[in-house]
Amino acid sequence: MKKPVTFTIKRIGALMAAAALGIMSVPMQAHAMEHRSYTYIYDYWGDVQDTPDLYEVFNVFTSAELGLDTRMNNPNGITVAGDKVYICDTGNNRIIVLGTDDQVGLVLLDEFDSIKGAPDNNQLSGPTDLAVSEDGNIFIADKGNNRILKVDPELHYLMEFTLPIDSALPADTIFLPNKVVVDTAERVYCICDGVNKGLLKYEADGTFAGFIGATKAPYDLLDYIWKKFATQEQIDRMPVDVPTEYSNIYMDYEGFIYASVPVADAQALDDLKVDSVRRLNLLGNNILVNNGNWLNCGDIYWGSAGGYSGPSMFSDVTAMENDIYVCLDRNRGRLFGYDDQGRMVFGFGGNGNIDGYFRRPIGIDHIGYDLVVLDSADCSITYFVLSDFGKCIYGAIDEFDAGHYEESAALWQKVLDIDGNYDLAYIGMGRACLRQENYREAMNYFELKYDDDNWSKAFKEYRKEWVQSHLFLTVFVLLLIFLIPLSIEKVRNMRVEVATSDVFRFPDPEDNMTRAEIREYHKKQRQEYREREKAKKEARKLAKLSSNSR
Amino acid sequence: MAQTSVKEKNIVGSVAGWFKKTFGPKYWDSMKFSLYCITHPLDGFWDLTHEKRGTYAAANTILFLTVLVRILSLKYTSFIFMQVYWEDINIFLYIASILFPLALFVVGNWATTTLFDGKGRLGQVYIGTCYALTPYPLMQVPLMIISNVITVNERQFYSVLAVLSLVWCGLLIIAAMGQIHEFSGAKNILFLVFSLFAMLVMVFILMLFFSMITQGIGYFYSLYREFMFRA
User: Fold this and answer.
1) Fewest Cβ atoms nearer than 10 Å: which of A252, A313, B31, B77?
2) Which domain does B112 fall in, by range?
3) How far is A239 from chain B (nearest CA, A)?
4) What mean pLDDT do residues A78-98 have?
């Protein structure tokens, strides 16, 4: 759950208390499991911090409110393209086209259940998803007809993608395209039911280009050893470790694919063997940055509460232009937003029947910074708009990205004035200060929220500055450190010189010695003094030894 | 006479003089002897008990310093190395988390070794263990200061030294027990392991004891409640 961590006193303290005073039971952190407000975040310690709402429900659209003649039936896909919102009404074999409207949010534009000019079958059958390319061509995952259709904006048939001939796929596989995205070159990526080798990738001309981004099968060393000793019947009865299929994909504005994974295996998630959400590059590698204090897996407490247990199971993901991506949890009906560093921006929602709660949330997309969520059991679309609080946060992030650090800091300060428990605001303030070369202040902000990497960046600069401005002192202290031990010996010798100096021990004037003789005499004196000292030292040592052995 | 006058001219000399005047020369010597112990463990710990170079006062002082440094490091170690969840810190529990295992070890070690002709007495085991803790305050105080002037990239310096201070203490405890009980190497290690088991057994008995007491008190309390209710 927590990323491989540093030494924290919270854990150590609790362990020690338990070990040292085994009699005392460590109180469970019950408060971490429950929360009262709609929106919350997890702070550094994993405690739930209530926050003001970042998103407010603007409107909830059911079939009646949209003015549909036939009620929606098990809609599965929602796609925003330009100012249009497409809903794949799977149960009714049709696609609903909605337009955005400032006054009410969404209005019905069109609906269709067939295309024009297909060679064999114009009717759609259980469409589950669609994607719109930059040229306006529409790609429909026509699941019931086992094909992905490519049609032009006027719905004229252009081409179709079917089951690829590939050695990795058994010949009797039924082609059930479930989710589809398309990139700027009209290459098609799709999730296919029953295929767990990753996304199917087609070139623009329809040739199959292979699988990308297969999820790893979680493996367990203990299981492996156990299987070595088990009989074939026992192995057959064991659960099979197959890679989890992606539940949904989204292509962001940079052409990377965000993919959500509904993780049911809490242990694998805890061991960091699976990801809840991935961002795939062209090679299918996960490049999602995960620098948050906690994993980007939605809720981090999975105990049974309110009838729901287990980790969050993401059914869809969408990424906005400010690199914040929002994951939709179908287990507890919540939305989780993370920023480009994988730090939690918000979590809100729940299961229920009132506005802002869901029964079976299946798809999410965004219109600008607004969010639309499709509920397949409720057959409704919930339209979320940014609240003033949310606007402050998004504004601060945008200003920072644009290089306007002062404006960013001002907006983060506004966030802090509203909610002093919002961790990202402190880090945002710190980063703004860091960019303005206000290192001391930046360090304070980072220290408050235990951001050691950023703190170190600020401190490194601060230390450099300090040394430069106190150059004299630094050199002086360094010199002292080296010179004092060196000079000790010198001082000792000088003391000998003084003790044996001419001033105190001058030869008898009546001796009438020459200068050379006097020098000789002094030399002898010094030598005698040294010998006396040496003898004294030895005597002390002897005394010590004898007292030791006594 | 000339010697003392020369000595008192520098700082260490004057501190030593003040100590001797206030606490008596024996205390100062036994404190100073801890420095000899940690650099010459075998020789030092032999003399510690057999030559009576160690005192309870010095042992208590070292233990006090250890606890003090541990508490101070909560506050003054940089957050890079130690993040403290202040809401959960109970200072008494925290002190107990050092003193309680120490007491368990001293008693457990004495109890097991005394059955197998270990020569050390309980007090001697206590003094030896405390003297073996000397490197901890000695190294942790500079480390505490250093932790505040380094960044995450230089984290390794701190970690290595911090581990070193603990390893040093551990080795000293092993050496101390061997010398105090006049055990050979293998026997010493064996009885240290036994001491650990003895500690576990004591924890178990304590738990049993306390839960019994709680039950007992609960019984009489409920009896009292019942009487008051009926009366």
Assistant:
1) A252
2) 2-195
3) 39
4) 93
